[in-house]
Design goal:
Layout (H helix, E strand, L loop, with lengths): L1 H39 L2 H13 L2 H19 L14 H85 L1
Helix pairs in contact: 1-4, 2-4
């Protein structure tokens, strides 16, 4: 029984070591990917990423809403009529919004395409890591099956030997 507990403990330790190796390997791969991404990314790509990051944030939405609100209020109030630069129906505002959408959409798409490429590389690496882990698990299961077969064979041998010992004891009793 003690030997079985040692075996189970060793198996758990082996599993923990495999898990730790997989985690370390995955971290190294992700670090390598980050370094490669930083080296291969041009300044224009980094700028596009920053613009996309800002354009998809609540900060942008709040600032943009505030600017639109000020624009509309400023150009509709009667006491600022002298300096109105875009009266309703806000044609200049529509032009500015069209330019913003026209430039912002492709920049965001460039950033998303780069991120999709990076995600694809990470997915391939994750698949490789999972495949390797699956192979290790299959190997461990093979070892377990062999141990179980050996143990079953051992138990059978012990039963046979016990039966032989009982038989010998019974013969000795009869002879005495």
């Amino acid at each position: 029984m003690n030997e079985q507990n040692n075996y189970q403990r060793d198996l758990k330790d082996y599993g923990k070591r495999v898990d730790q190796l997989v985690v370390e390997f995955e971290e190294q791969i992700h670090e390598h990917l980050n370094e490669e991404y930083i080296k291969s990314t041009k300044w224009s790509d980094k700028l596009a990423d920053k613009i996309a990051s800002f354009g998809g944030s609540w900060k942008f939405i709040v600032i943009f809403f505030a600017i639109l609100l000020v624009w509309i209020v400023f150009n509709t109030l009667s006491f600022t009529k002298i300096i109105h630069f875009d009266e309703p129906p806000f044609i200049l505002l529509n032009l500015v919004l069209s330019f913003l959408a026209g430039f912002q959409a492709p920049i965001i798409m460039m950033s998303q395409n780069r991120q999709a490429t990076r995600d694809k590389k990470e997915t391939i690496i994750d698949f490789a890591i999972n495949y390797k882990a699956e192979q290790e698990i299959d190997d461990m299961q093979g070892h377990l099956h062999r141990l179980e077969a050996n143990f079953a064979e051992f138990r059978c041998e012990v039963r046979n030997e016990l039966a032989a010992i009982k038989e010998l004891l019974q013969e000795n009793k009869k002879n005495i």
